Structure formats: structure tokens, C-alpha cells
Fold this sequence. Notes:
The chain is an alpha+beta fold.
Amino acid sequence: MRLLFLFLLFAFQQVANAQPSQKKLLKEVNLFHQALVKKDLLQLESSTHPDLTYQHSNGWIETKKEQIENVKTSYLVYHQFTERAMQIEQKKREAKVSFQATIDVTLKGERHTYVLNVQEKWVQVGKHWLIINRQATR
């Protein structure tokens, strides 16, 4: 419970310190990551671009359809997803979001915690930000 409180405090602090134009993007990034943990399939559907390529640190790449199916069937279970040192580079309707992540995940029944360097590309479609690409390295 304390960890959840600290995560929420950190997330709200990031939003408060962001530029006004980046606040909505940062909120969408956090919603997407927490949707993975909560298995919120509607949020995952609305946060991801149809052409999503989601690369894991081992080189495995999921499409939007595969990601949603893998979360839905618990093939991939996210227990915790926390971000640190988030940086946003925004140019008009595109943004690169870089951060360090600690991800507690179970894949095919094996649970692991990874500390990763992550870079995500987000695009603005209408008033919404959608993740279109993600790369992670150890």
C-alpha cells in the first residue's frame, strides 16, 4: 500500500512539474502503464495506435492485437510498472518519452523484475495521445 502511495505521489509530482502542453501526454503515459498492471483492456485499446510495435528488452515485439490478447489471457501479467527520470521531447504532434522503468512481470508462469531503459514514441491523434512504438533495453 505504501508503494502504491509513493507511486501515485511521484506520478502527480511529475504532472505538476510538466509543461502545460505535456501534462496531457504524461497523464496518458501513466494511464497506459497502469492499464497494463490493472488489465484494463479498454484503456489499452484507447491508448495504443493501430500500428503499435512494442519491443521488449529480449527483442520480442508485440503488435497492438498481440499485446491486448497477451494481457487478456494472462500470458503476460504485469504486477508493477514504475517510471523514474522521465524526459519528454515533444515536436508538434509527436513525442519521445524516455525513462528508467522497474517492471515486475510474469511471462509464461515465470516471474521476473526488470530494470530497463525505455523509449516510447507517442503521436497525437485528434485530442488523444497514442503510443505507437516502444523499445526497452537492460
